[in-house]
Design brief:
Butyryl-Coa Dehydrogenase, subunit A, domain 1; Butyryl-CoA Dehydrogenase, subunit A, domain 3; 4-stranded mixed β-sheet; binds flavin-adenine dinucleotide
């Protein structure tokens, strides 16, 4: 794989960049950091879907573009550089569409896939619960078989896209040590959804979901009964590449802002870029961001070649998201007092970056996974 962008990738990212700078960024800045409701999010996601943001990596026979993951990540990075509030729901839609393509019965694919791919619909994928975080196998939300139906009761939390999801793929306990994915229509009356306010990214919906006597046909099972964890493993490889891009994209924006600021801001008789300790910050941020992107594109390239990349995706996820935290923190410092002012974007970037090391396996969990692959010895328990 060449790490240089191809001519096609360059044309695609350039035209998306122009569109984001001209159309989306001004609208997002005008909207501010408040909650983004479904109507507005749909307007943005439909326009971005036309650039292939959701359908690009989905195979053509399912209505996608069959584009490689490397190119998809290059495109998604551009959106994340503009607004993670807008990029994050797209990330969930890609992961969810992927899960449907690989495992869902045809009637579920027919009902939801095209809406997801053209930006009109949203999906939520739920594993986490109040008592279930890193230990995903401990899911308690229970689906009990009643004739041809499942009846589901329980509580999920931290569900991205929760408030505007048209489809919820819920991980349920269906037996002893047996977890199963079940598709639930987002408008099912047995679902109650509550927004969780966060330190940042409050536009993007993250929700608690209460499930009370949710009755759905057994035919709506996604994948085989008892195979939810196995289905999730492949999805995790891709989701972790997205999360890595979350980190280095915020880092990239922080670096771009820092370069401009350090050229313009004068102290002690010269632009602060001319002070060696500031030069060190710029060089460190740039190098670490590039390293994070290279790790991520390496994992994505393996996905494109059909090679499992659990280790590489875990390396990319922890490094990329942690680099997001350190680069945005350095950007705040480089901006001095202005770094904590709402007038300057780096303050928001630093708060958004803090979230990255948590979802899709925390930094600690990624390190445990990498070490287990390398040594064959698990250190989880
Ligand atoms: C913005 C956001 C969006 C999310 N979206 C979704 C979603 O769409 N769907 C979904 O299902 N979930 C989602 N999550 C939940 C996310 O996956 C969990 O928060 C994450 O897996 C960590 O679980 P936890 O928060 O319960 O932390 P815990 O598992 O309780 O961990 C707490 C701390 O202990 C550490 N820890 C845990 N176990 C070990 C161990 N064995 N060794 C060392 N350290 C350990 C962790 O690294 C962490 O630092 C989202 C979370 C956030 C913040």
């Amino acid at each position: 794989m060449s790490f240089q962008m191809t001519e096609e990738q360059k044309m695609a990212t350039d035209s998306l960049r122009k569109f984001l700078d001209k159309e989306i960024e001004p609208e997002f800045i005008a909207h501010g950091e408040g909650r983004i409701y479904k109507e507005q999010m749909t307007k943005w996601s439909k326009r971005l879907a036309s650039f292939g943001l959701v359908n690009a990596p989905i195979p053509e026979e399912f209505g996608g573009m069959g584009m490689d993951w490397v190119t998809h990540l290059r495109l998604w990075e551009e959106v994340a550089v503009t607004s993670l509030d807008i990029a994050a729901p797209l990330l969930i839609n890609v992961a969810g569409a992927d899960l449907l393509v690989q495992n869902a019965p045809k009637h579920i694919q027919d009902k939801y896939l095209s809406g997801l791919l053209n930006g009109e619909m949203f999906i939520g994928v739920g594993i986490s619960e109040p008592d279930v975080g890193s230990d995903v196998a401990a899911v308690k939300t229970q689906a009990i078989r009643d004739g041809d139906d499942w009846v589901i009761n329980g509580e999920k939390t931290w569900i991205s896209n929760g408030e505007y999801m048209d489809l919820f793929v819920c991980t349920c306990k269906t037996g002893d040590g047996e977890l199963t994915h079940i598709a639930i229509d987002g408008n099912h009356p047995g679902l109650e959804v509550r927004h969780i306010p966060k330190m940042a990214l409050n536009g993007q919906s993250t929700s608690q979901i209460f499930l009370t006597d949710v009755r759905v046909p057994v035919a709506d099972t996604v994948g085989k009964i008892g195979k939810a964890l196995m289905n999730t493993l492949v999805i995790f490889e891709r989701a972790r590449c997205h999360m890595a891009a979350w980190g280095y994209s915020l880092g990239r924006r922080a670096l771009e802002e820092s370069i401009k600021y350090s050229q313009d801001r004068t102290q002690h008789g010269k632009p602060i870029a001319g002070h060696q300790l500031i030069a060190d910050k710029i060089a460190t941020m740039a190098t670490e961001i590039d390293a994070a992107r290279l790790l991520t594109l390496h994992a994505a390239d393996m996905i494109d070649k059909g090679i499992r990349c659990d280790k590489e995706a875990s390396m990319a996820k922890w490094y990329g998201t942690e680099i997001g935290v350190s680069a945005t923190r350095q950007a705040v410092q480089l901006h001095g007092g202005n770094g904590v002012s709402k007038e300057f974007i780096v303050e928001r970037l630093a708060r958004e970056a803090m979230i990255g090391p948590i979802p899709d396996g925390t930094t600690e969990i990624q390190k445990l996974l990498i070490s287990r692959i390398l040594t064959g010895v698990q250190a989880f328990r």
